[in-house]
Amino acid sequence: MTNGTRGPFVNGVLARFAEEHEGLPGAALPWLRRVRSDAIGRFAELGLPTTRHEDWKYTSVAAIERRAFDTPFDASSNGLAERALARHALDGTHRLVFVDGRYAPGLSRLDTLPAGAQVGSLAAAIAARPDRLEDLFVADDEAPANGFTTLNSALWADGAWIDLAPGVVLDMPIHLLFITTRNDLASFPRNLVRAGAEAGVTLIEHHAGPDDASYFTDAVTRIVLGKGARVAHAKLQQEGRRSFHIAAIHAEQAQDSRFGSHAFAFGGQLARSEIATRLGAEDCEAKLVGLYVGSGRQHIDHHTCIDHAQPRGTSREVYKGVLDGAARAVFNGRVIVRPDAQQTDAQQSNRNLLLSDSAEVDTKPQLEIWADDVKCAHGATVGQLDADQLHYLRSRGIDEAAARSLLIRAFAADTLEGIEHAALRARLESLLPGGLPEAA
Amino acid sequence: MLEIRNLHVTVDDKPILRGLDLTVMAGEVHAIMGPNGSGKSTLAHVLAGREGYVVTAGEILYLGKNLLELAPEERAREGIFLAFQYPVEIPGVANIYLLKAAVNAVRRHRGEQELDAMDFLVLVKEKFRLMDMDESLLYRAVNEGFSGGEKKRNEILQMAVLEPRLAILDETDSGLDIDALKVVANGVEAMRDPDRAIILVTHYQRLLDHIRPDRVHVLAQGRIALSGGPELAQELERRGYGWVEAEAQKMAGAGAQ
After folding, report:
1. What is the mean pLDDT for each group of 10 consecutive residues in chain A (440 residues)?
2. Of B76, B94, B96, which is closest to A397 when you measure between CB atoms?
3. In sequence order, which residues have a C-beta less than 8 Å from that of residue B238 and are 6 or more positions away?
4. Is the N end or the C end of chain B the one with fewer CB atoms within 10 Å?
5. How many CB pairs under 8 A join A and B?
6. How far apart are the first and last CA of chain A?
7. pTM for the structure as a whole
8. How distant is the Cα of B239 from the closest Cα of chain A, in angstroms?
9. E-assigned strand segments in A57-211
10. Which of B163, B218, B217 is nearest to B192 (CA)?
11. ABC transporter domain location, by residue (chain B) (predicted)?
């Protein structure tokens, strides 16, 4: 993979690394220095992926490549961050806020946490107790990478560090809010989550920024689930309409663990999320749900990978898309069932609703099954609003626009299943395509 | 209330209705009968404003207005209700939501205040009892997973809640067992009102054993071939549709000369 391209973007980040790496978290730790310098070396080799890479066939990042995101970090956001927080805060959560890629303690709010729960800034954790994190970073170093995840390894400045001792269950979700305030800014959030045996937590990873700024977010979240752990990860992507958002979420599951992922993508000019989980021991469960909503000329890509490595794993995956205007979406759902993963039960579905003639979706299930005693099913559909349903609603007095909204909303709404937190659910309901229904 | 003059309708460029005349007065119940393919359901769809049904000639006046100028939702708000032969399933939209949206669309149109949740629930539950329906269906998605009988009852329930001026029932009796047929017939009978007209589109006489029509029309070759009182339905039950069609053909032949 040395056929990456090199333009203003690559040159810009290489220069930035040379200038800034001495000031990045953990610069004094030899092992972390090595991780970072290895990563930037690999990135210099890889460059950004091109559409010649199979995984990037339908998503060109040429628009990123042409840009140098060179606005330096500045701790004062002129009240923009406060206003964004007022809009995006969620009641009933612990909250870690990051502004332009750096932790903002003044905007964050942690209620009393049970003993054995570490929740805070990753940069602070690296400074305070690097020994606890080394193995996670080294494991991460070996995870599958592309130019973007590699770049994040080299340049991350902060993110969330969540470490739960065995048996520690947080009742309240943790809201990780990443706010971008500046034009031409690049941020590289890195989140590390470790849930010990039987521990449990719900995370809300939320990215937001203004529509009038063009910026770049390159986020990586890594989640390690111990035996019997339960982690629910909800991603809410509300980046500005001129922004670029590239993110990876990688989970690693131990025996009997349960990983739930909800991915809601609304914003960005070009947005891509890779969500992968490895069911690395027996009797794991994974549930991946997603909703992407695009209009205008948005491009929204989801690549998921569910890797069944050991027996009796169960996975359920439902992704839905609603596309209007000249929006384009990509869904690639990879499911691997390795030779040892007998009695795997995997189901995947991807359904798309196209609201205009110019909207487009490329959907690709990718099943790789190496075991023989398995149940695997998948299905993908691309369709339009149903004319019979529309007419039926209109024949009951509901005007055409309202009938369309109602059907679009109905299509999308079941992706909210399993979202129990009241404030998050209400927020998502307000963001569903079709708009809010009249009170019924 | 409804006046149809010389109505010609094509579907996919194929003429289905060919000069249909029909007058229905407030307070009346009319039955439109006829063999398969005679155009009965086409008439029902045209009245409700279904796309794909092209009126090539003739006119429809409803309460003195040109019905053909109105969008389907405007017709509904003006008091027209079609009970579908094949009610549509709408996953993700709760039955109660549709009912409330429909009721309030009509009320807004009439300049009336929207019903609040409490009044609405009282109204709907009363109609559920009338239709002998399980209230759990209220919270299920519209028609989704309903049995054939439940779907038909749900149509009549909507009619009872919406209280239309002109109700058209398209083959509501098809696929109903005798108990369900009685419930549906009772629901329709309860709607009989001096200010309301009801058109029953049906292939069989059996619904008319329970709902006595004021007028019976037989549709053949895309027009009304024969009209009469309730006794006509019984005659059709005895003699079938063959003789009416033969008459209609003779008439069409005579008309062409």
Report:
1. 68 92 93 93 91 92 92 82 96 97 96 94 94 79 77 95 98 97 95 97 98 96 97 98 97 98 98 97 98 97 98 98 97 97 97 97 96 95 96 96 93 92 94 66
2. B76
3. none
4. C
5. 82
6. 55
7. 0.90
8. 36
9. 94-99, 102-103, 117-121, 160-164, 174-179, 186-187, 190-195, 200-208
10. B163
11. 2-246
A41 to chain B, closest Cα gap in Å: 51
CA dist A415 and A318 (Å) reads 8
Residue A311 three-state SS: coil
**Residues in Cβ contact with A392 at an 8 Å cutoff, skipping those fewer than 6 apart:** B84, B87, B88, B90
Task: Please report, as a single letter, which amino acid is at residue A250.
Answer: H
- Are A285 and A259 contacting, i.e. CB atoms less than 8 angstroms apart? yes
CB–CB of A128/A157 below 8 Å?
no
Instruction: Measure the CA–CA gap between A24 and A35, rounded to whole angstroms.
Output: 12
Three-state SS for B218? strand
Q: Roughly what angle, to the nearest 10 degrees, separates helices A387-394 and A400-413? A: 130
Distances (CA, A) of A408 to A220, A362, A435, B4, B84: 31, 20, 9, 37, 23
CA dihedral (B18, B21, B26, B29) positive or negative: negative
Q: Going residue by residue through chain B (257 aa), what tens digit of pLDDT does each one get?
A: 999 999 999 999 999 999 999 999 999 999 999 888 889 999 999 999 999 999 999 999 999 999 999 999 999 999 999 999 999 999 999 999 999 999 999 999 999 999 888 999 999 999 998 888 888 999 999 999 998 889 999 999 999 999 999 999 999 888 888 888 988 898 899 999 999 999 999 988 888 888 999 999 999 889 998 999 988 888 888 888 888 877 777 766 655 44
SS3 A35: helix
Tell me the β-bridge partners of B57. Answer: B8
Residue A378 CA to chain centroid, in angstroms? 22
Q: Fill in the amino acid letter for A388.
A: D
Burial class (CB within 10 angstroms; exposed 0-12, middle 13-18, buried 19+) of B16: buried
pLDDT in tens, A263-305: 999 999 999 999 999 999 999 999 999 999 999 999 999 999 9
What are the helix (H) ranges across A302-399? 387-394
CB contact under 8 A, A397 and B87: no
CA separation for the pair A39, A151 (Å, rounded): 7
The residues near B253 (Cβ < 8 Å, ≥ 6 apart) are none
Domain ranges of chain A: 77-385, 386-440
A368: number of Cβ within 10 Å: 12
Please tell me which residue of chain B has the smallest CA distance to A387: B51
Contact A392 B88 (CB under 8 A): yes
For residues A187 and A174, what is the distance between their CA atoms, to the nearest angstrom? 21
Type of residue found at A136: L
CA distances from A130 to A123, B28, B239 (A): 10, 86, 95
| Residue A133 near residue A26 (C-beta atoms within 8 A) | no
> Contact B104/A389, CB-based, under 8 Å?
no
Structure tokens at A183: 């034009």
Query: What is the residue whose two structure tokens read 């205008």?
Result: A296
Residue A208 to residue A100: CA distance in whole angstroms: 10
Residues of chain B with C-beta less than 8 angstroms from the C-beta of A411: 92
Is B94–A406 a contact, with Cβ atoms under 8 angstroms apart?
A: no
Structural tokens at position A407: 């059907």
Vertex B48: Cα angle to B42 and B49 (nearest 5): 85
Contacts for B79 with CB less than 8 Å, ≥ 6 apart? B63, B106, B164, B165, B166
